Amino acid sequence: MHAAGGVFYGTGHTLRFTPLWFLPCLFLVTVASTLLLQRAASAAPADPTDPSTKTSLAIVAMVSTTVGLAIIASGRFASAPFQDEQGRPLGLPWSLDLVPIALGVFIAGMLSARSRLLWQPRHPFFLMAVAVMILALLVGNDVSLDLNYRRATDPGAAVVGIVSGIALVIGVSELIVRSQWLARVFAHLGSASLVVLIFHGPLQRRVLEWLAQWIALKPMLVILGTGLTVAIICAADLLVLRRVPALSWVYYPQHNLQP
Questions:
Q1: Which of 52, 83, 95, 133 is deepest in the core (most CB within 10 A)?
Q2: Residues 102, 254: Cα–Cα separation, whole Å
Q3: How far does Cα 12 stand from its chain's mean position?
Q4: CA distance to 11, 77, 109, per residue, from 162 (Å)
Q5: Residue 127: helix, strand or coil by DSSP?
Q6: DSSP for 179-235?
Q7: d(Cα 23, Cα 70) in Å, to the nearest integer?
Q8: How many angstroms separate the CA atoms of 110 and 33, rounded?
Q9: What is the mean pLDDT of residues 19-41?
């Protein structure tokens, strides 16, 4: 009963698979963004993506992100009575308290997706280098943002980190699409992302413990451990989950429902 109640509450420390906490929050964000877009379309029925509408959405994104960071910085939903018996933050059901920051980033990403300047960078290596330097500087100064734990060491710097992380992903993505074999590899990783998310936790801990016997450098340990964990899960996905009908129905129901 306790586990079932945790599923209905739907936050990181009430779910058996903690990484799935973002799914209920993403559902709320999707509903909220859909309502915003419908309102924008009704205000500008001729062209819901005209400059004025984009400006309005950009303002909403900035305000929503600012409010979200302020909520996290206040610590209101990371302290009693929003804690479990171990003192871990629970937040509001379905991470409702994280919707403002998630909605702001979601809308910013949606607007960025329509920007050819961002999604077709002429110099992806330069974009990646700048992003990596900024992220390294933030990490070196112990700047962190953990939504599951409702923790932000420096909200302003966290915004810089979010933007830099997005830029890094865009730069890497541009390089990936230029190579057919890399594109195929990452296309499979994308299709197996939920499987990786579900199974990576316990396997990664064991892989890291095994590698730690030979590797002392922590960054190298994390990189190799993460890569090996993902490779093992993807291999099991290809050889088992996608080939055994019963498991395929569980993990890939949408593939089996296609006519």
A1: 95
A2: 26
A3: 14
A4: 22, 22, 11
A5: helix
A6: -HHHHHHHHHHHHTHHHHHHHHHHHHHHHHHHHTTT---HHHHHHHHHHHHHHHHHH
A7: 22
A8: 10
A9: 86
d(CA 144, CA 154): 7
Q: What is the pLDDT of residues 85-123, one digit of tens each?
A: 888 999 999 999 999 999 998 998 888 767 666 666 677
Beta-strand runs (E) in 74-216: 145-146, 151-152
Eight-state DSSP code of residue 120 = S
- What pLDDT digit, counting tens, does each position of 220-241 carry? 888 899 999 999 999 999 889 8
Question: Rounded distance, CA 251 to CA 225, Å?
Answer: 24
Residue 259 has pLDDT above 60, yes or no: no
Q: Residue 225 CB: number of other CB atoms within 10 A?
A: 21
Q: What angle do CA 250, 90, 36 make, to 5 degrees?
A: 75
For residues 194, 67, 94, 154, the Cα torsion angle rounded to the nearest 10 degrees is 60
pLDDT at 210 over 90: yes
